[in-house]
Write a structure and sequence with these properties.
By secondary structure, the protein is α+β, with helices and mostly antiparallel strands. 15% of the residues lie in helices and 38% in strands. The protein has two domains: 127 residues, Thiol Ester Dehydrase, Chain A (Roll), CATH 3.10.129; 87 residues, Thiol Ester Dehydrase, Chain A, CATH 3.10.129. The chain is globular, with a radius of gyration of 18 Å.
């Protein structure tokens, strides 16, 4: 089965203060669908001891058409649309109980050698286990990278807490949204954008302090998360 279907619903933890599916809620749901698909083909989280590999997220591009409310039934369709030696692109379509498409997304993932804690190599056997569906949900192919805006303003610093850390021992990819939100001016409503792009460049570990920079140009809100010494970019997020 090359296209995997995951049925779920919008949980209380997935909604914002307006009872609408939040950015983080959708990303968590899509991440779960991707994880379920990997588990089905024998390369899931519980298979790491056997396979010696795991996937690490590099890039998100998400587009909302509609934000459903609490307890709305959802169907997520996801598939691997391309592979190279070390990474894979995965796309998503999200439908509500009426069959209306509410969101689309594309992601890039890199294969990690869990034993060496470095980049793994994608074998033909692994590719065949997922199958390839050459269908892109976006007309334009994303680059998988974002650039820092010029003259961004430093807004605040954040130190990674225990609550931020996931099974890969660094800040969970969805939690970068929480960090980014705090960089927004108070008069900007979060969870209200049609488009979100996130480029993960360097992991944040527990106890690390990062500096957050913000800019708004032509209604494109950008947050750049850097190391405290400003030498490394951890992530760049764009909302529009």
């Amino acid at each position: 089965m090359s296209v995997y279907e995951y049925k779920t619903h919008v949980r209380y933890s997935d909604i914002d203060e307006n009872n609408q599916l939040s950015d983080k809620g959708l990303i968590n749901i899509l991440s779960e669908a991707a994880g379920k698909h990997s588990a089905m083909v024998g390369n899931g989280l519980n298979d790491i001891e056997k396979t010696g590999t795991t996937w690490m997220l590099l890039f998100w591009k998400v587009k909302f058409f509609k934000r459903p409310i609490w307890n709305t039934d959802l169907v997520i369709k996801t598939w691997a649309r391309s592979f190279n030696r070390i990474s894979s692109w995965r796309d998503f379509e999200v439908y509500d109980s009426n069959g209306e498409k509410i969101a689309i997304a594309t992601t890039e993932w890199v294969l990690i050698d869990a034993l060496k804690n470095g980049i793994g190599r994608i074998t033909e056997e692994l590719m065949n286990s997922y199958g390839i569906v050459e269908k892109s949900v976006f007309e334009e192919e994303p680059t998988g990278k974002l650039k820092e805006e010029e003259n961004m303003k430093e807004v605040y610093k954040y130190t990674a807490k225990r609550r931020d850390i996931d099974v890969n021992h660094h800040v969970n990819n969805a939690n970068y949204l929480d960090i980014a939100y705090e960089a927004f001016p108070n008069d900007v409503e979060i969870d209200n954008f049609e488009n979100i792009e996130i480029y993960y460049k360097k992991q944040i570990k527990i106890g690390e302090t990062v500096s957050c920079y913000y800019s708004n140009r032509n209604n494109i809100h950008t947050v750049c998360i850097k190391s405290e010494d400003k030498k490394n970019i951890h992530a760049i997020l764009k909302f529009f």
